[in-house]
Amino acid sequence: MARRIKSELVVASAAIIASVVSNPHRAQAEAIARRPNIVLILADDLGYTDISTFGGEISTPNIAALAQQGISFTNYHTAASCAPTRGMILTGVDSHRNGVPNIPEALPPEQKKHANYQGVLGDNVVTVATLLREAGYHTYMTGKWHLGKTPELLPSARGFDRTIAMADTGADNWEQKPYLPIYKKANWFADGKEHTLPDDFYSSKYFIDKSIEFIESNRADGKPFFSYIPFQAVHIPVQAPREFTEKYIGTYDEGWTVMRERRRQAAVRLGIVPPETETVITPGTGDWEALTEEEKRYQSKRMAVYAGMVDAMDTHIGRLIAYLKETGEYDNTIFIFTSDNGPEGSEPAGPNGSVLLERWMKKVGYNTDYETLGEKGSFNAIGPSNATIAASPLAWYKFYSGDGGMRVPLVISGPGITAQGKWSNALTYVTDITPTILGFAGVRDHGGTFADRPVEPIIGKDLGSLTKGAATAVRRSDEPIGYELGGNRALLKGDHKITFNRGPRGDSTWHLFNIATDPGEARDLGETHPELLANMIADYETWVTDNNVLPVADDYDQVRQVFLNGMKQIYGPRIKLAAIAILALLGLGGFWFIRRRHARQ
Predict the structure, then answer these.
(1) What is the tens place of the pLDDT at every residue in 81-111?
(2) Which CATH number fits the domain that encloses residue 383?
(3) 8 part of a folded domain
């Protein structure tokens, strides 16, 4: 009997070997087909505790299910602005080397003279989509791109087979129109060509509709796919279908202080942050009790729309999950869910918003009426005080180097993730996503050379060992991560972080925190640990030199620069003097975000 079984195994093995030798293309195709599908979902301006699994009150059952079947990262950091994150997440290369150190709309002319300060992906980097496509993957992208809008810079030219791309910082979620006067139109593209949105468009629904359409179009060939879905939710304008908003009416009536503390307590109970975590009040935050009842009602509704938009995004993610289950692909699909940065704290409209912008909104058909807030034709934002709820218990928010702007949720789920339902507090960074995806796909890193030419090497870490529970860290405790955006700075090393935020809200001073024990950045250790602070500042200066980080002028104001660049693009260089005069006349100083707030806001 043993001899007969052994003989049959030999015959079977010989047959397999013969099949591979005689049909190597078939063997290769079968190997490719066994690789997992990968879905990379990027929310826009989503706060640290906005999803339910991180302590938020917003219903996100589909993301929660992914977290339960996978691993959640509580110490994941990213850039505090959209385009730099998008450049790093797709290449694994630092933003000051891949061409996107800031959004292109905010770069001053003196910085744009340098090749690494163009605000669009340089030709010196390779996207993860390109590497996956070279390895036999179908590659799809549906959502916000913001890495260039000329033909050679669109996602269809950077490794994606099929694309629906919104090329600007943001756009309306209900119709094809710009959300700021710095754009003549909302720039949408499909497969590299200008695109017209359908009449029944709502961004979150449309992105999933097209993702499913793209996946289904090639499902029969059995090849794996990479689907990158960068949502507009919850970027300004914050908009949601009425039925989603209504679920949260009254939820935020107790005000900013109560909701911040509620989320802090929930995060402590979940073990996301230590019990001693304090919540620092970000400069510019208002006093809820100083508001009138009408103002409180309006602020609560703004946040209800925000919650509704997050809920709607989760609902449409659930549609994609259901489709993959129906087609038998779900069990072979890796999901990565995260956000590009923390919540947006600007105040473009509504109470104490920009007068100049409100005039433009009326001209193009926007309103800020309470009854229809968030619906078609409505312009909504949550404002800085509500943003402190979304970031709670972390300090600061988008654009700033506090963890409220840089630390966001990260969930990874799917086949091979053995640390299911677990948390990891390992220090992780946005450049880690590309090597992690390559690791899941079994695709080699390009090693600094692609298509017989040198390219920027990938610097991120593969998080695969963490997802398998085989390691507790991917970085040494003495390994620094440098960061800069518009003059705001940070350096992470082990459990410690130094931060520097420019005025007018920041104090232009370095601060030192232990973000393992004090994630709220409430206890500055600079005076008690001066040597550590000095060493980390030295590490930062080394990183600046190594990565060609340019300084910003003392009078640089990112908001004003966005406005000036936008006006110049639309009206030409002669608009600069007129724009400055308008800003001085109206006393806006900072256009639509990072502006000095009304005393009660």
Answers:
(1) 999 999 999 999 999 999 999 999 999 999 9
(2) 3.40.720.10
(3) no
